[in-house]
Amino acid sequence: MNRVFFLAFCLMITPLGAEPMPQIQVSTELHYVEVGPAELLPDAPVVVILHGTGATGDSMLSLCDQLQLPPCRFVLPDGPLRAHGAFEWYDRFTHDRKGILYSRDRLFELIDQVVRESAPKSTPGIKAKPRPVILIGFSQGAVMALETGLNYKGNVVGIVSLSGYIGDPEKTLAHPYADHKTPIFLMQGTEDPVVQEEMGQSTVEALRKAGYHPFMKRILMGHKISNLEIEEVSKFLREVILLYH
After folding, report:
1. Which of 116, 188, 220, 231 could lock 200 by a disulfide, CB 3.0 to 4.6 Å apart?
2. What was the pLDDT predicted at 24?
3. Stated pTM of the model
4. Segment (H or E) for 22
């Protein structure tokens, strides 16, 4: 597969005073933007951020800075499907599961690729652990974060859903690979006209029925990503990374 790398610019996503991390845009079958230092600690995570309908991976770049996480590798892909000139993960009108599965499989491939390329070096006689993976998504991206994170065969250590849900729990949770102890954080607006509260609540109930222990937090807002949400997600992910260490 041909790949073209473009050094675009430097983006501060480490605490003040630290070195900026170079942004690299990579052209593949699933176009994505990758942000992170050239060298990572062996247990530094790969953080996959998934956009909502009509947006792009680039549109989520500001989160890399705002989350204020320890050094990690951020991966921000574009949805592989196009409708009316907009990127999406599945048909937003029919919620076609075929499209969800297609996009999920493309994400599996992308995560495998990034994890493999950023894998820590093994020492003689000791096999390195696979790099941990965290998935964050908004709206359609949140649906994909849950679908992908729960079913990815790699080392998923955290899943964040912002204004998302599981549309078909019986299929998504039929044979999940994620450990039941995997931290799952769902945030939802109490005035969200797109993803109503009952959709979030049914997702929490389905996850609990499947043996997971999700945490749901609702805040007064509509269908968007707010500064308060970012603060809450930052706190959650810092705890996840600390526990993994």
Report:
1. 188
2. 40
3. 0.87
4. strand 21-27
Helices H / strands E in the chain, number of each: 6, 11
* Domains along the chain with CATH numbers: 30-119+129-244 (3.40.50.1820)
Lowest mean pLDDT among 14-28, 166-180, 184-198: 14-28
Closest CA to 176 of 162, 198, 156: 156
| CA atoms of 166 and 121, how far apart (whole Å) | 37
The answer to whether 152 touches 111, Cβ cutoff 8 Å, is yes
Buried b (16+ CB within 10 A) or exposed e, 209-218: ebebebebee
Q: What's the pLDDT score for residue 124?
A: 65
**What are 216's two structure tokens?**
């749901």
Residue 125 region, left (φ>0) first, then alpha (ψ -120 to 50), else beta?
left
Residue 93 CB neighbours (<10 A):
7
Contact yes or no for 50/141 (Cβ under 8 A): yes
- Exposed / middle / buried, residue 22 (Cβ in 10 Å: 0-12, 13-18, 19+): middle
